[in-house]
Design goal:
The protein is mainly α. It is about 85% helix and about 0% strand. It has one domain. It contains three helices and no strands. α1 packs antiparallel against α3.
């Protein structure tokens, strides 16, 4: 039973990470194109490699934290608090 719970938790975390990473990428790509359209002459100075890498890293960290939170949150709701902590309920 514990292996099934672990696999389901990992699957939910992986799906959550994938969804949020995709949404984050689309969001920041849209912001990038908006900056290019609104201020084309300053685009090169505003969108630098270091800013791009920091945005990518921030997106990855936020996606990882969200996936961890939702995988444990769904584990609690799927299997109940008593099964999660091996507590015998009356």
């Amino acid at each position: 039973m514990t292996h099934i719970v672990l696999y389901i938790t990992l699957f939910i975390g992986l799906v959550t990470f994938t969804v949020y990473a995709s949404l984050g990428s689309v969001f920041f790509l849209t912001i990038d194109r908006l900056v290019f359209i609104l201020v084309p002459m300053k685009y090169g100075s505003r969108v630098t490699i270091s800013r791009t890498l920091s945005i990518m890293a921030t997106t990855a960290v936020i996606c990882c934290l969200t996936a961890i939170f939702y995988s444990f949150h769904s584990k609690i709701h799927l299997f109940g608090i008593s099964q999660l902590y091996n507590v015998n309920s009356p």
